[in-house]
Write a structure and sequence with these properties.
The chain is mainly beta and 227 residues long. It has a six-stranded mixed β-barrel. A four-stranded mixed sheet has the order 10-7-9-12, with no helix packed on it. The radius of gyration is 29 Å and the shape is elongated. Helices cover 7% and strands 35% of the residues.
């Protein structure tokens, strides 16, 4: 099991003003939540966090407090603390700039299973695309249960056999050993629907019969319905 070390610092100041000052220094404010304990306010170097996230959204982070979390007096001997591990719980982005504003972490026990959302990665090209079919996704991620270190970065879904009118369900996914999908097996994931045909809009008021089409005949023929 691989974990990624992430250096964090505890912070005392909270609120919008201190958060803005942190971002101006290339740091991101965050909070680490742990069951049965008070939440810990953190600051994280943005560049370090981006590097960690290259390993996937569900990567297990080993929190390195960089000497900030001792809480003891200067010169006092302190016992070595047990490592603290966490996964990303939520990321908050600026609504227009899409810059990262805040990080929520959820501390985990590596020996206890957790539930996490995992993205679905389509593999192959649906056969029905050649006939104009359109892939319509019902959902692009599913919830799984596994030990923190076993949660996959994504789950592959073979879509190459999809023809128009066919669909794939959750049961089509093949999770690795130790991973359980927490979804109904018959839940819809994706369907290949027929091409959309634009309907012609008739300029006929509701309740009126459409006009008869004009009949074009050969010269000298009588018009239909003439007395």
């Amino acid at each position: 099991m691989e974990t990624i070390k992430l250096t964090v610092q505890e912070r005392e100041e909270t609120g919008n003003g201190p958060a803005r000052r942190l971002r101006a220094q290339g740091l991101i404010p965050g909070v680490s939540y742990s069951k049965g304990k008070e939440a810990t306010a953190l600051s994280i170097a943005l560049d370090d966090f981006k590097v960690a996230m290259k390993h996937g959204h569900n990567v297990v982070l080993e929190l390195d407090f960089g000497g900030s979390g001792g809480g003891g007096k200067a010169g006092a001997k302190t016992k070595a603390k047990a490592p603290r591990y966490a996964v990303v719980k939520q990321l908050q982005f600026h609504p227009t700039k899409r810059s990262l504003l805040h990080v929520d972490l959820h501390e985990v026990d590596l020996t206890v299973e957790i539930e996490a959302l995992v993205a679905i990665e389509p593999v192959g090209t649906p056969a029905g695309l050649a006939d104009g079919g359109i892939m319509e996704w019902e959902r692009r991620e599913v919830t799984v249960r596994a030990l923190p270190g076993d949660v996959p970065a994504m789950l592959e879904l073979d879509v190459s056999g999809l023809e128009i009118g066919h669909h794939l369900l959750v049961e089509a996914l093949n999770p690795p050993a130790g991973v359980t999908i927490v979804e109904e097996p018959d839940s819809l994931l994706v369907a290949l629907i027929p091409p959309r045909v634009e309907e012609e809009v008739a300029a006929v008021e509701e309740g009126e019969e459409p006009a008869e089409p004009e009949v074009v005949g050969t010269e000298g023929s009588e018009e239909e319905g003439e007395e």
